[in-house]
Design brief:
Length: 166
């Protein structure tokens, strides 16, 4: 038996089962997971013939209106399953900030050590070396603060955006 036939046949059977779940289940979370799995099955270009054989695109277009209606009708339930809880969001933000602060401290200490070592190796006087270290540290701290702000904004947006759609 041809291995390609077996793979296509298996993909076709799995897809039909997933499509049945998508079409016949009333729970939006289950339907979403089935759709996600279906997309995983067809993520490779070589699966296009199987998708065509089972009329995947046509079937997905046909279920779109009912899926949107299910989302609208289960709006409150979806709020529990979409995104992170506010408590988890706070924990994630705090952990990210702590990790970034630790990284900043390590980078600053290493930077000071490297700059002073280079200054000594080049024969730069201690005062000039300290000025260079201060400038480098200020630049590093500014960059890290910007990174922390961006990370916090991204985390908040990633957590908040799913709720905006429902």
């Amino acid at each position: 038996m041809d291995l390609m036939f077996v793979e296509q046949n298996g993909r076709q059977k799995i897809s039909l089962i997933l499509l049945e779940v998508v079409c016949n289940n009333s729970d939006v979370v289950i339907v979403s997971e089935a759709l996600d799995s279906l997309f995983d099955v067809f993520k490779e270009d070589h699966t296009d013939p199987v998708a065509k054989d089972i009329a995947l695109v046509v079937k997905l277009r046909n279920i779109q209106p009912s899926f949107k209606a299910k989302i609208a009708s289960q709006k409150k339930k979806l709020g529990e399953n979409v995104g992170m809880s506010p408590q988890l969001t706070v924990v994630v933000v705090v952990v990210v900030v702590v990790v970034v602060v630790v990284v900043v401290v390590v980078v600053v200490v290493v930077t000071i050590a490297v700059v002073l070592a280079v200054a000594v190796a080049l024969g730069i006087q201690l005062f000039q070396g300290i000025v260079v270290v201060v400038v480098v540290v200020v630049v590093v701290v500014v960059v890290v603060v910007v990174v922390v702000v961006v990370v916090v904004v991204v985390v908040v947006v990633v957590v908040a955006v799913p709720h905006a759609f429902f």
